[in-house]
Amino acid sequence: DVKVTQSSRYLVKRTGEKVFLECVQDMDHENMFWYRQDPGLGLRLIYFSYDVKMKEKGDIPEGYSVSREKKERFSLILESASTNQTSMYLCASRTGISTDTQYFGPGTRLTVL
Amino acid sequence: DAKTTQPTSMDCAEGRAANLPCNHSTISGNEYVYWYRQIHSQGPQYIIHGLKNNETNEMASLIITEDRKSSTLILPHATLRDTAVYYCIVRVGAGNNRKLIWGLGTSLAVNP
Fold it and tell me: Does pLDDT of A98 surpass 90?
């Protein structure tokens, strides 16, 4: 069974803290994604990676960075967390071929106080 | 900006077919329509996709109009476990830069 796991389901951080969200997939997928999901705004793409050490900005990359040192792991970094980054964060992976069947993790609900 | 519009919410009786409409009037000729659903407290789950022809799999059927400006997802025999938010999505781009443009979805409630 395919699996995408995220390091935490719930996370509470303070403004200005550095925050790491980790995502691991066991499907040997080339591509990985980070989204945030907010009421009334839907899913918005933050960053994606189509290969190890490769990254591309999505629609809302400001305030975030990413790291992909190994194929199975994709990290989202909030260098200095702010209250407007309180959100649900979803990680996904897909194969590198033409399909867009993305497999999602359960999400991390981040609250920044 | 989302390229799809969907009703905010719908109801369906258990055991009946659920027909979820989607409008994508600005879709381009090479852009696929994807459907995902998100059950409460879970990540989205792929259901089905199509370009021009109608598609069917073990989960659902997808009917795309001939002009491709709208589509309907059909759950033939809805169960309580089908209660979820259903997203109609257009895939844009090509190669490694292809991506899904998510709308706000339809919240489907399947009632006993």
Answer: no
